[in-house]
Amino acid sequence: MAYQTTYNGWCDYDKVELADEEDATPPVKVHQSWRNKGSARAAVNNKVETDDQECIRVDAISSPPTPSPQSGRRKTSEGLIIPALLRNQQQRHKRFDDDDDKQEDEEVAEDKDEEEEEEEEDEEVESMEEEVVAADPEVKEEAPVASTLDAPVWNFIQRSTEVDDIWAETRTDEVAGIKSMWEDIEDYDMLGDNEEEELLGRDDDVLCYNLMDALEDEDVEFGGWRTLKVELGTEWVEGYTGPCLKGNAVTREFVLEMVEHFRGQNTIHGRYAWQIVDTAMELLQEEKTLVDLKVLEGRNITVCGDVHGQFYDLLNIFKINGWPSETNPYVFNGDFVDRGSFSVEVVLTLLAFKCAFPQSMTLIRGNHESQVMNMMYGFHSEAIAKYGMHLAHRFRRLFCHLPLAACLNHKVLVMHGGLFSRDGVTLNDLRAVQRVREPPDEGIMAELLWSDPMAAMGRQPNIRGIGVSFGPDVTQNFLQQNGLSLLVRSHEVKEEGYEVMHGGKLVTIFSAPNYCDRMDNKGALIRFGADMVPNFTSFEAVPHPNAPSYAHPAIFY
């Protein structure tokens, strides 16, 4: 019996049994799509019976050979008849099916052996525990401690079994979520003015729109920071050796110890990071969108601008001006995070001082306290790398509760960006802004975060694409209408760390010296007494350890 080789252009060669060994017909290219209907190269029209043999008819074969008269093969007007093809293919498929069944049986046997080994190991562990308890009646059985999930991310964190199982399920979706985040940014639900009015008074979480809200409903997925276990270590026992809280209150002593721990490029236990964030968010939820601050006679208050993750320069500020305390209050005017590689340390330090001294640490939202900016400029990735996905999203929700402005002694208004695209905006309009959301692209909230001053009169479109550029006349009209004497804003790098504009009515303050390690600018802070006269202090950058950039690769500075 002779064989004829057929080839379908994609699959392996097949052997097709010919009807006669003496057939001298050259090889025929036959498309195997007779098993997959609809192919463009050849299609099975029907199945016919010829010479008591089961055959199939194949059409559209390029350059069909002329059949030999001795072969008994006959050419029809519809196509070429290939006898016995179906029978041979069925036998071939049966052989493959048998091999698949054999391989599947072997895999099932292997899985069964593995399960039996695991069961034997579990039984051995249980028997050992029973022997320990029987030997020492005072030993009490403890709840099992979950293994650390993703050790490079969660340094020394050991959680309860229930929480670990929940987080393990969501970790599998993180990579896909991050990859699709850029495609979904345009789908963020930004509330318009009418929607703001309709949603006033509703639960804050209703206003926090985001494509990943389902992942971060901690009331369901996460039992709270109290469920996180702290397994302490010593010189001889591996475990957590950082600062620990004695009780549930964040104290000054703990904060100072935490700062020194951060200085050595260490992370605190996840339990304490969660506790700081959750405690601070409870405090921020009680604050107004516009915070009114009173500076008494003989007291001072310090206003700082952008810090942008420059943790070691933040410590230098405290070295120059003193640690936050009840007698040394601070206002940090937004942009605590992004660009710098120690943004998590910066924001945890500021939030911890907020927990320790709620009335002496005021934190105002900047344009970088938003998820879109955090995704681009590094904070989101840094938070995931140091404390995990869930806490990274918790930071995002906390940012939505930050106030948008502060007013000192009813004379000085502090906001991150600047003024507005229309006249007539009052302080009551600022108080009425619903801030618990991701920043919109226009309106009062967007302009508070994004606008910039300019030397020319009037208003112009902002080169940033959001907010406006406003002149000295706009500043003067706003101050006069609201009974104010000075605007303090941040948002821009200044060579000396600050700049006075608009006839002394507007001050820009920037507290990140040598911004992004390349601008060679100074940082600055402002101290106000009860008379609201600004006193400026400039300072140089301090050395910091080398650390990787967490910003998106397309961001250069």
How does this structure look, described?
The chain contains 16 helices and 21 strands. The protein is of the alpha/beta class and 557 residues long. The strands form 6 sheets. Strands 8-12-13-17-19-18 form a 6-stranded mixed beta sheet. A hairpin with a 6-residue loop joins β15 and β16. The longest helix has 51 residues. The N terminus is likely disordered.
Give the tags.
single chain, 557 residues, alpha/beta, 6-stranded mixed sheet, 5-stranded mixed sheet
Could you provide a short overview of the structure?
The protein has 16 helices and 21 strands. It has 557 residues and is an alpha/beta fold. Strand 10 (330-332), helix 10 and strand 11 form a beta-alpha-beta unit.
Give the low-confidence spans: 1-86, 138-221
Round the mean pLDDT to the nearest integer and report it: 75
Overall form? elongated
Portion of residues in beta strands equals: 5-15%
The percent range for helix content is: 25-40%
Major sheet, described briefly? 6 strands, mixed
Give the strand order, joined by hyphens, for the main sheet. Answer: 8-12-13-17-19-18
Class by helix and strand content? alpha/beta
